[in-house]
Amino acid sequence: MAEIKAIINLRLLAGIAKPNPKMGQSLGPLGINMMHFCKDFNAATAHIRSDIPLRVQVAAKVDRSYSYIIKPPETSWLIKKVIMKEKLTQYAGHVNLDYIDVRYVYEIAKIKKEIDIDFKRATLESICNCIIGQCNSMGVNVSIIDEKPKPFNPKAKV
């Protein structure tokens, strides 16, 4: 087992990662071959739609090998997909123009618990509280809407 030299966090689109200057600045000094990394990453994420931004944590080792962990999109990206908006209010906490149903918050929490290794041991209630806090900081009110929500599909295009 080789010693870990550095840990790098990247954001890449699923299945279509290409070498770019930003990736080169991150992986190049550690001796990781970008083309090889991109091929590995694209093969591992081929089953995911290509417009979903994934978080990747790359552990570069001293012997120039690497391992990586693929994490789901950020919670803010999922919230924006549910609301179907790219931009939210500039005055979060003062002007709340958008609403999200608590059932969607629960669905996002289930996705995070299932896929994100950081939330594997957390309860759904605590994950929901984190998501509600993030909604509040983004200027989105969480409420109970009486109408039946549409099924949430993070793969849907906006």
Explain what this protein looks like in three dimensions:
There is one protein chain. The protein is α+β, with helices and mostly antiparallel strands and 158 residues long. The chain folds into 2 domains: 4-71, Ribosomal protein L11/L12, N-terminal domain (Ribosomal protein L11, N-terminal domain); 75-143, Arc Repressor Mutant, subunit A (Orthogonal Bundle), CATH 1.10.10.250. Helices cover 35% and strands 21% of the residues. The protein has 5 helices and 5 strands, in the order βααββαβααβ. It has helices at residues 21-27, 34-44, 75-83, 102-115, 124-138, and strands at residues 4-13, 53-61, 66-71, 98-101, 140-143. It has a 3-stranded antiparallel sheet, with helices on one face. Strands 4-5 form a two-stranded parallel ribbon. Helix 3 (75-83) runs antiparallel to helix 4 and helix 4 (102-115) packs across helix 5. The longest helix is centred in the last third of the chain and has 15 residues, at 124-138. The chain is elongated and about 55 Å long.
Short overview:
This protein has helices spanning 21-27, 34-44, 75-83, 102-115, 124-138, and strands spanning 4-13, 53-61, 66-71, 98-101, 140-143.
Summary tags:
single chain, 158 residues, alpha+beta, Ribosomal protein L11, N-terminal domain, Arc Repressor Mutant, subunit A, 2 domains, three-stranded antiparallel beta sheet, two-stranded parallel ribbon, 5 strands, 21% strand, methylation, Ribosomal_uL11_C
